[in-house]
Every structure is written in C-alpha cells, then in structure tokens.
Amino acid sequence: MVFYGAMTKVPLLDLKAQFAQIRAEVMPVIDQVCASQHFILGDHVRALEVEIAQYCDASTGVGVSSGTDALLLALMALGVGLGDEVITSSFTFFATAGTIARTGARPVFCDIDPLTFNLSPDAVQAFIKDHCVVQGEQLINRASGGRIKAVMPVHLYGQCADMDPLLAMARHHRLKVIEDAAQAIGSEYKGGVRAGTIGDVGCFSFFPSKNLGAFGDAGLCTTNDEELAESMRVLRVHGGKPKYYHAEIGGNFRIDELQAAILRVKLKYLDGWTEARQRNAAYYDAAFAAAGLGEKLRTPPAIAGYRHIYNQYVVRAQGRDALKARLTERGIGSEIYYPVPLHLQKCFAYLNYHAGNFPHSELAAAETLALPIYPELEQGQLAHVVATIAEFYT
User: Fold this and answer.
1) What is the pLDDT of residue 7?
2) Torsion angle of alpha carbons 241, 246, 247, 249, nearest 10°?
3) In the prediction, which pLDDT does 8 show?
4) Helices 257-267 and 15-36, packing angle to 10 deg
5) What is the per-residue pLDDT for 60?
6) Domain 22-267 adopts which CATH fold?
7) What sign results for the dihedral spanned by CA atoms 203, 207, 212, 216?
8) What integer best gives the mean pLDDT of the chain?
C-alpha cells in the first residue's frame, strides 16, 4: 500500500503519466509523419477535422494552429472588425478578449454567474437594455457608437454557459454567437447538445494541458455552416484561393500534421479520461462535504442535465492565497484561474472600466483556486489534497 503523507507530491497536472499510457501508439504515428515528410494540411489533418466534428456533433471541423487562432479566425470569418463590438465575459483567459481587440473591434465586458463562473445572460440583457439602442437592424452602444456584432460566451472550466437566453438575445438583435469552447470539448448543454455546435461557430484549444491536448499548440473550429467553414479554410492560408491569389487578407492559422496525428490517437481515450475526471470530482465533492467545511470552501456545482468535463476543478476558498501557500508546502499543485479579471487588465484601460464594475468577476478572481483533477490521480493523492485542506481550515 502506498502511504500518502505530508511529503506526497500531487502535481496540478501530470502529463508524463498520460504519455506512458499512449506512448506505444503515439510514437509510430509520429514516425509515420516524419517518414512521409508531409507536415502541412495532410491526411491526418483532414481525418482529425472529420473525427472532431463527429465527436462534437457538428457538420464541419477546421483545424487551426491554436485555440487563440481559432477565436481570431472565427471573428475574421464572421466579418468582425473596426467599428464593431463583441460582448463577452470579464472572467476568462486573455485570448477571449485579446482576439476581439486584434480584429480592431472593441470588447464589451459583462459580469458572470457567481455559481458557474460563466457569462451571465442577465448581465448581458441589462447591458443591452441600459446601454444600447436599435438603429435600423443594428444594435448600437450609446456610449461608444460601436455596432454590437457578436456575443462570445465562454464554457469555462468545462461546463457550458447558459446558452438559451443568450441565443434568444442574439437572434433578436441579429448578433453572431461564437462559443469559446477552449476548455470544453465533449461538454454538453441541455438535451445532450455538445459545446461548439450551439452558436454559429465553436472554438477549441488543444493546448497540452487541456483534456484533449496536443504536443504543442493546436486548435479547431466547428460549425454547421458550410459557407462559413469554407471562409475559415481560406482565411487560415492567408486568404489565398487558389494558392497565390488573394481576394481577402487572412493569416497563417494552419494546424500541423504532426499535432493532428497525435490528437487522433488521443481522441480515442478522451471519454475515458473525462469519466476519470468526473470520478475525481465526485470524490472531492463528497469528501469536502463530509469534512463539513461549509462556506469556507465551496465546490463547483455541476448543473443538472449538463455534462461537465472538469477541465479544471475550481473551488471558492476563504483565505485563498494562504490556502494555496499551504498546499504548496505540502507538495500539492494548484493554480489561480484568473487573478485579474479582464476589465482591470492594464492593456484594456482604454475601455474605461473600473474596479467595482463587475463584482462577481472580481470576487471570483479573489477567491477561486483550481485543484488537481487529472485522470491519473490515485485515490490516496485525492485524500491527501482533501486532508490538507480540511486541516488548514481546522
């Protein structure tokens, strides 16, 4: 029996354990691609696009160079640019808003639901009601004069945002819907609808730490609109079709053949890995409840009827920073996602947001902490995490 004591190491993520499981399948595939010397948009890319689209119940997949480039490509293909504005969450990874700004458009932040950490439909509705006016078929921001062109909800930590009211608002005001599903491959909304197929386009990241991670940067866009898919295919190769003939300006957003080949191997394991994450989350839920920590530590709720894939297991913790320090002392990895909400980031000072504008986002930034949740965790390691946290609060 393995003893898990004070010096037990529990990393936030252990990709070496995952690699050991798949090494025998991955290495021959890498060798095959190297032998072919076909590294750009080859057979593995085309096959991965089909397989991910099928996994997500989408009609089409377009492989790209990263999750960030998936968002940027989607915005470009939907015609978002100078003079436009995109509504999104203030509590998310930087790329969500950074890509909006890179198109020349203006990010418009709204607050989150304090339970799920996802974009609050009520906050979006309040922004539209209090700060916008309809002019013809366009929704205009009174303060800036910008056109509201799209809404970009984020399925944060692996659980879908509340999409029905967001879609209703989008349809009413003729807005495009871009799902930032970077952390959500395999997540399901009501009725088993997969993330990435609810809006106009879904954007996925295969960064190595994701549930489905490449051996470097990679991403993919899903859509049920073939015309939009074709636009993204052209834009990802500098807007050239045929080669060297450019009707529009795109970028270099191609996924590598090597990454596609690796992801095809790993995709076969994804559901099993997700089930292990769900088991680990259930263990945490039950163990923390049994520890009677009350409001000192609040575990993440899994919304009934949804499929939460637990890309992260994020708790709200009193004395968060001191708890993180204690976990580090005991050899337990943890991470703060995210310490500064986007409306308070220095690079977005020009948007004129201030502390207090989005209290739920600001409180989440001060209280949340991600605990180890990766599939290969052993029960003794999970118990060590729970015991350390219970001891801290005792």
Assistant:
1) 62
2) 110
3) 83
4) 130
5) 98
6) Aspartate Aminotransferase; domain 2 (3.40.640)
7) positive
8) 97
Q: How far apart are CA 112 and CA 127, in angstroms?
A: 13
- Burial string for 52-78 (b: 16+ CB within 10 Å, else e) reads bbebbebebbbbbbbbbbbbbbbbbbb
* Range list for CATH 3.40.640.10 in the chain: 22-267
Region of residue 331 (left: phi > 0; alpha: psi -120 to 50; beta: else): left
What distance separates the 2 farthest-apart alpha carbons in the chain?
71
pTM: 0.96
Element (H, E) at 205: strand 201-205
122 CB-near residues (< 8 Å, 6+ apart): none
pLDDT tens digits, 269-291: 999 999 999 999 999 999 999 99
pLDDT surpasses 80 at 3 = no
Please give the Cα distance from 118 to 156 (Å, whole number): 6
Give the strand pairing for 84-89 and 106-110: parallel
Angular region, 200: left φ>0, alpha ψ -120 to 50, beta rest: alpha
Provide CATH code, domain 270-393: 3.90.1150.10
Residues of each domain in the chain carrying CATH 3.90.1150.10: 270-393
Which helix (DSSP H) or strand (DSSP E) does residue 151 occupy? strand 147-152
Cα dihedral 278, 281, 282, 283 sign: positive
Are 184 and 219 in contact by the 8 Å Cβ rule? The answer is no
- CA angle centred on 54, ends 17 and 79, rounded to 5°: 105
User: Do residues 276 and 268 make contact, with C-beta atoms less than 8 angstroms apart?
Assistant: no
Whole-number Cα distances in Å, 147 to 136, 162, 388: 11, 24, 51
Helices (H), 78-120: 95-102
- C-alpha Rg value of the chain to the nearest Å: 21
Name the one residue in this structure whose structure tokens are 């919304």.
Answer: 303
Joined together, the tokens standing for residue 382 give: 């999970």
* pLDDT single digits (tens) 126-173: 999 999 999 999 999 999 999 999 999 999 999 999 999 999 999 999
Say how far residue 74 (Cα) sits from the centre of its chain: 15
Query: Is 356 exposed, middle or buried, given 0-12, 13-18 or 19+ CB atoms closer than 10 A?
Result: exposed
Counted residue by residue, the chain has a size of 394
Q: How many angstroms separate the CA atoms of 290 and 390, rounded?
A: 10
Going by C-beta distance under 8 Å and a sequence separation of 6 or more, which residues neighbour residue 292? none
Neighbours of 346 (CB within 10 A): 6
